[in-house]
Design goal:
The complex is a heterodimer. Chain A is of the alpha+beta class. Chain B folds into four domains: 6-194, Ubiquitin-like (UB roll); 200-259, Uridine Diphospho-n-acetylenolpyruvylglucosamine Reductase, domain 2, CATH 3.30.43.10; 275-377, Uridine Diphospho-n-acetylenolpyruvylglucosamine Reductase, domain 3 (2-Layer Sandwich), CATH 3.30.465.10; 385-490, 2-Layer Sandwich (Enolase-like, domain 1), CATH 3.30.390.50. Chain B is built from 16 helices and 21 strands. Chain B has helices spanning 26-33, 98-105, 115-128, 134-140, 152-160, 182-194, 221-230, 243-248, 284-291, 299-304, 308-313, 316-322, 329-335, 435-441, 448-461, 472-490; strands at residues 2-3, 6-10, 13-17, 52-59, 62-69, 82-84, 200-206, 212-217, 235-237, 256-259, 269-271, 275-279, 339-344, 347-352, 357-359, 362-363, 369-377, 385-393, 404-413, 416-425, 432-433. In chain B, a hairpin with a 2-residue loop joins strand 15 and strand 16 (362-363). Classes of the chains: A alpha+beta, B alpha+beta. The interface between A and B is large, with 103 and 94 residues. Chain A: GO terms for molecular function: 2 iron, 2 sulfur cluster binding; iron ion binding; molybdenum ion binding; oxidoreductase activity.
């Protein structure tokens, strides 16, 4: 080290924080790459010589015995190099993440229309896809169970029923001043990540395999590929730099795609790329679980709940996949923000001959909350009260009425002040009154308004998943390689974790390179899911950074002759006693001094414990909160609807990055709005999904953005738990803010009946469904009038 | 005279291609042949916009910029044009284009996969329009789906890009600054030079297995008509917004593609005293540009017709010739009494548009005959006050296929309906008039009794189908309710959702 240059005693007027430190509204780490088209997704990687392209042959029966399968025409098609069936799998024909009931290729029995039967490997993608259609398969049809109702009748399940009981429900219902019951349904949802599933498998020496997979869970893909190939975890490396969206759809599903590519690579000795086209992606891979919810509620004259009973029946599809945990979370969120003195929930995980449903942002939470919000809305309309009043009356208390139906005491409830603030800022009361007045003189167009809360539990309910690892290298020029087990799907995780390290090491963010998620760098990582990415990986990276910082501190104290508490990390510089030098100089000096500049970090979430047999305990580390108020208009002639205005207040604690968090809140809300309004999955009576492309499956487009859209992060937000810099998870909770749109639509429908009747509406609220609900309401009014 | 070479410009570079399957899409050529992977495939059917690129072409002595979907555009259709992709925008010194810089600053990308498409739609807007309002911006982005952001930051970027400094770039200046820009003039001259004569572009390609595909792109109407007589089974290609899917999704063999996009006479829009004639090669966007001043009632049809990139590529006559029962233009055009001009060899004939459709996917076209133009009358033939409406009902506002489309035109004198042309899409195997319903209304006031009769007559006119877009019951119910809305409109009662004013406070 050149001491003349580096050692100085001049006071240094540094900024408070280095550039891009945690808390700053920094642009996404790949923003410039995104806008220039130079961010590499797996299909953009340079193709290796002799790369083959794969396509999957899909079954064309919902439930059938395969009598014969003739692939001669497939094999003979131009460009085809090989065809893979279950017989070509050296290891296990299974990619089930929890229960082993997901064959990579169906064999004797087909369990849904679109299930994978075989794969074609060809010299180009077009040839592979064209050939995949040439199979001749003879089926012997078996009875197909397609819907939840079919499954309830047939008694088919993928997993045993689960019940949760808290308090004396029967007694409380019997004693309640009022009782209501009903049935409500909501649909599923396709993830519609813009990048479809893809894997690129490259055979390596000695029967090892490198797989690039668009996956939220590379560690699981590694195991699934290893099992399929009949090798060990050590023989497979899975890497993912970024996904073009995930939303839960790339949590358990990528294993099948990666396994097929890897089997093909093993069989042919050539690199194999399998990229699903949009239709195949939508037909073959799982979606959000749709639910039928039967409910019964007892309440007093004020609308305060005494007891509630739910029967939650969900369409799992043909296999278990993650249904167990999803249905559990639906039970945990059957309260949303409300104290339930007595509750009984029966959860049916129905087996159907449809695609196996899977994780999707909220993971059962939106489904559970959909049920209780229906109950609250019905109570309010039954009593002729403002639904918001009934909501607030039933909110969890702070010091009392604060224990959930699964026994967790809520210690951080901020919903009351958030609701008050939002009610004021959006002028809920005066607008509600004005809307009612406006509706009275508008016969065709009706407006509606609703303000709904969100409380969402943060942590994987499977406790063991709440752990994370990180790997951090400091190079001799003072730059940093950061790696962790989380994956980047657009949510800004890589940006946030880099910001954590920037703050911890007090270096500018451009000194840090975040590298691709890679099973060889950080092992056994959990899926990037359950909103936990920044919480877990941020803490793990912080742990790694602190280890290095401690070593550098010890080294600097020794080298510059001061106490360790006199070593201070300033932005991009270190002060050790009277000496100040750059971080780069210190790094180089430490290396010269034979100090290890590489560290792993590790984190496990504290304070969580939960018994999955009794469904009780403390499954969640903390809760995230939000509230939204939406105003809509509907056309009572066509059933069309439009969101006119939405106001949102959402709690992210001390934000790690307000720009990214705002993006998550807005994007989650719009996605939730899509789920509840226009996104309709439609199967025909043969079990064929007929909405398998954007021409038929409509996610929100640009004109669906509310013209007035006021979204704010709650300024007073702070995590009461010791989360990473007191921030809160933000991936999933905002999704459920869209329930405000749903209830505003119901309010507008109610206006068509002068607010005397409770609308019956199932999601999604397509124009057809809204018109059906309106017509039912009008028919009821007409029969009343006739009777009078 | 024939030429067997596709010649276009990419980033100012001459690209000349000879031996390539003419069904190769622009997207696949970029990604697979050029390893130019910024442009993404999201759906391969022109519905998501991840593949959006921008094309510049010479039009009446100036440059014209259009964003289109690369996934369904065939490479030979680029002949004589200039292609720009997301890689084209950054300057040689690495400075971002305002469309890119604004997206970064507005936090307009999350996963980034749709981003190149949005950037190119914004670039297309930037090149064509100086100060777009919010509605123009939404129209521009109607064909780009984003699953992450919820669009707000992208809309912010669309406004912010105009406030950023224009970079020192080799890109031609936008049209609103092009008069001072030598690069724009140079590009125009080069494009005009490629298309300087009447050479027919003739491509043929034999695949490994011996399959022959031909692509024929004449420059004159005479050559086009002759080629179609010679190849009556040829697939006529215009904007390829439907034919593109036959290739990418259906893997159909298309041995002969006859492209009409280069035919000069078919690109014409002719306005006479009482008709507007729109040639077969005129894009939907250009066609509506000329129709809307005469029929402002069709604004909703235009705005909700597919998306901007699809309207920039697809043609009005293509929609007509395709004759899908759920095509949006026909019910409206039938209602206002449009006619089609058909040509076979040198012979022409004219038909009322509704007479073109004989049954599902069946048209009154003989082999070798094609739709040359559509003729739109500019004035109602009858006296009295006329009311024209074109209403679309679908699950989504932007870029959706109609469950029901109604094109409604009635004339009334002293409160009595004298003429009615009521055409519907989505209600039958073809776009069709509701003749019984029309008859039930004529000669009487549009009162409650007439409406009830019309509702009933509609059930005699149509027996719609159930599918993923809507059930038969809903289709019938909505069609009836649109007649109700028409009646209400006559009395000035309704407000439309689209025009509902959004204010922070209701008055």
């Amino acid at each position: 080290m050149n001491s003349a240059e580096s050692i100085t005693t001049t006071p240094h007027h540094a900024p408070v924080q280095p550039i891009g430190s945690a808390g700053e509204a920094l642009a996404h780490e790949s923003a410039v790459l995104h806008v220039t088209g130079s961010a590499s997704y797996i299909d953009d990687l340079p193709e290796l010589r002799r790369t083959l392209h794969a396509a999957i042959g899909l079954a064309t029966a919902a439930h059938a015995r395969v009598q014969s399968i003739n692939l001669d025409a497939v094999r003979a098609a131009p460009g085809v190099v090989a065809v893979l069936t279950a017989d070509d799998i050296p290891g296990l024909n299974d990619f089930g993440p929890v229960v082993h009931d997901d064959p990579i290729f169906a064999t004797s029995e087909v369990q849904f229309h679109g299930q994978a039967l075989f794969a074609v490997l060809a010299e180009d993608m077009h040839a592979a896809r064209a050939a995949a259609r040439l199979a001749q398969v003879e089926y012997e049809a078996l009875p197909a169970v397609l819907s939840v109702d079919d499954a309830l009748e047939a008694g088919t399940r993928v997993l045993p029923d689960v019940s949760l009981r808290q308090g004396e429900v029967d007694g409380a219902l019997a004693k309640a001043a009022h009782r209501l019951s009903g049935t409500v349904r909501h649909g599923g949802q396709d993830h519609f990540y813009l990048e479809t599933h893809i894997a690129y498998a490259i055979p390596q020496e000695d029967n090892t395999m490198k797989v690039y997979a668009s996956s939220q869970h590379p560690g699981e893909v590694q195991l699934q590929v290893a099992h399929a190939l009949g090798v060990d975890a050590k023989d497979v490396v899975v890497e993912c730099r970024r996904m073009g969206g995930g939303f839960g759809g790339k949590e358990s599903q990528p294993g099948q795609i990666a396994a097929i590519a890897a089997i093909g690579a093993l069989r042919t000795g050539r690199p194999v790329k399998l990229r699903l086209d949009r239709d195949d992606d939508m037909i073959l891979t799982g979606k959000r679980h749709d639910f039928r919810i039967d409910w019964e509620a007892g309440f007093d004259d004020d609308g305060r709940l005494a007891a509630v009973r739910f029967r939650q029946s969900t369409r799992a599809g043909y296999s278990a996949d993650l249904t167990g945990a999803i249905a559990d979370r639906a039970m945990f969120h059957a309260d949303n923000a409300y104290y339930l003195p007595a509750v009984a929930i029966d959860s049916h995980r129905c087996k159907t001959h449809t695609v196996s449903n899977t994780a999707f942002r909220g993971f059962g939470g939106p489904q559970g909350m959909f049920g209780i919000e229906e109950v609250i809305d019905n109570i309010a309309r039954h009593l002729g009260r403002d639904p918001l009043e009934i909501r607030k009356l039933n909110y969890y208390g702070v010091d009392e009425r604060n224990t959930t139906h699964y026994g967790q005491r809520i210690e951080d409830n901020v919903l009351a002040p958030m609701t008050t603030e939002l009610e004021a800022s959006c002028q809920y009361a005066s607008r509600r009154a004005a809307i009612r007045q406006w509706n009275a003189s508008s016969p065709v167009i009706k407006r509606g308004i609703a303000l709904t809360p969100v409380k969402f539990g943060i942590s994987f309910t499977a406790t063991h998943l709440n752990q994370a690892g990180a790997l951090l290298h400091v190079y001799t020029d003072g730059t940093v390689m950061l790696n962790h087990g989380g994956t980047e799907m657009g949510q800004g995780l890589f940006t946030k974790v880099a910001q954590v390290v920037a703050r911890e090491l007090q270096i500018d963010i451009d000194r840090i390179r975040v590298t691709a998620s890679d099973t060889a760098r950080v092992p056994n990582a959990s899926a990037t899911a359950a909103s936990s990415g920044a919480d877990l990986n941020g803490k793990a990276a912080q742990d790694a950074a602190r280890k290095i910082k401690a070593r550098l501190t010890e080294f600097a104290a020794a080298k510059f002759g001061c106490r360790e508490d006199q070593v201070e990390f300033l932005p991009n510089r270190i002060r050790a006693g009277n000496t100040e030098l750059s971080f780069a100089e210190l790094a180089h000096a430490a290396w010269m001094g034979r100090v290890s500049l590489s560290a792993t970090g590790y984190y496990r979430t504290p304070r969580i414990a939960y018994d999955r047999h009794t469904l009780s305990g403390r499954p969640f580390y903390y809760y995230a909160y939000g509230a939204a108020c939406s105003e809509v208009a509907i056309d009572t002639l066509t059933g069309e609807s439009r969101v006119l205005r939405t106001d949102i207040l959402h709690d992210v604690g001390h934000s790690l990055n307000p720009a990214i968090d705002l993006g998550q809140v807005e994007g989650g809300f719009i996605q939730g709005m899509g789920w509840l309004t226009m996104e309709e999955l439609w199967w025909d009576d043969k079990g064929r999904l007929r909405t398998h492309a954007p021409s038929t499956y409509k996610i929100p487009a640009v004109s669906d953005l509310p013209p007035v859209f006021n979204v704010r992060l709650w300024e007073r937000g702070i995590n009461s738990e010791d989360s990473i810099f007191r921030s809160k998870a933000v991936g999933e909770p905002p999704f459920m803010l869209a329930l405000s749109v749903w209830h505003a639509i119901k309010d507008a429908i109610a206006a068509a009946g002068d607010y005397r009747l409770t609308p019956q509406l199932n999601a999604p609220a397509t124009p057809e469904e809204i018109l059906r609900s309106l017509d039912a309401l009008r028919a009821h009014l007409a029969s009343e009038a006739a009777a009078a | 005279m024939n030429s067997a070479e596709i010649h276009f410009l990419l980033d100012g570079r001459d690209v000349r291609i000879r031996d390539l399957a003419p069904t190769t899409t622009v997207l696949n050529w970029l990604r697979e042949h050029e390893a130019r992977t910024g442009t993404k495939e999201g759906c391969a059917e022109g519905d998501c916009g991840a593949c959006t690129v921008v094309i510049a072409e010479a039009r009446n002595g100036s440059l014209r910029w259009r964003a289109v979907n690369a996934c369904i555009q065939l490479l030979p259709t680029l002949h004589g044009k200039a292609l720009f992709t997301v890689e084209s925008l950054r300057t040689a010194h690495g400075v971002l284009h305002p469309a890119q810089q604004a997206m970064v600053e507005s936090h307009g990308s999350q996963c980034g996969f749709c981003t190149p498409g949005f950037v190119m739609s914004l670039f297309g807007l930037y090149q064509s329009q100086a100060a777009p309002d919010k509605q123009s911006i939404a129209d521009t982005l109607s064909g780009n789906l984003c699953r992450c952001t919820g669009y707000r930051p992208i809309l912010d970027a669309a406004q912010a890009m105009y406030h950023l400094p224009a970079p020192e770039s080799s890109l031609p200046a936008p049209v609103w600054r092009a008069d001072k820009d030598p690069a724009a003039a140079r590009l125009l001259a080069r494009l005009e030079a490629i298309e300087h004569d009447d050479t027919t572009l003739m491509l043929s390609h034999t695949r490994g297995d011996g399959t022959l595909t031909r692509f024929i792109a004449p420059r004159t109407l005479e050559a086009f008509a002759t080629q179609l007589l010679e190849h009556p089974q040829a697939t006529i290609l215009a904007g390829s917004t439907d034919v593109g899917l036959w290739i990418t999704k259906q893997f159909r063999a298309l041995p002969v593609l006859l492209y009409l996009g280069r035919v000069r006479e078919l690109a014409r829009i002719e306005l006479s005293a009482d008709t507007l004639e729109i040639g077969a090669a005129v894009t939907l966007e250009d066609a509506f540009d000329h129709i809307l001043p005469h029929y402002p009632e069709l604004t909703e049809l235009w705005r909700r017709f597919a998306s901007r990139p699809i309207r920039n590529a697809g043609t009005l006559c293509g929609n007509i010739a395709n004759g899908s029962p759920i095509g949006d233009s026909m019910p409206a055009l039938i209602a206002i009494g449009a006619e089609v001009v058909l040509q076979r060899g040198k012979q022409q004939r004219q038909l009322p548009l509704e007479a073109l459709y004989l049954g599902y996917q069946q048209k009154d076209l003989t082999p070798g005959e094609f739709v040359r133009a559509v003729r739109i009358p500019l004035h109602s033939q009858s006296n009295g006050e006329s009311l024209i409406r074109a209403w679309k009902v679908s699950k989504r506002h932007d870029q959706d296929i109609s469950a029901v489309f109604a094109g409604l035109a009635i004339t009334h004198e002293d409160g009595i309906i004298t003429h009615a042309r009521l055409a519907f899409g989505g209600m039958a195997a073809t776009p069709r008039r509701a003749v019984l319903t029309e008859a039930s209304l004529i000669g009487r006031p549009f009162d409650a009794a007439a409406l009830a009769d019309a509702h009933h007559a509609l059930t005699q006119d149509f027996q719609p189908l159930s599918d993923m877009r809507a059930s038969a019951d809903y289709r019938m119910r909505v069609a009836q309710n649109l007649l109700t809305r028409l009646q209400l409109d006559m009395t000035g009662v309704t407000t439309r959702l689209d025009t509902l004013e959004v204010t922070d406070e209701l008055g």
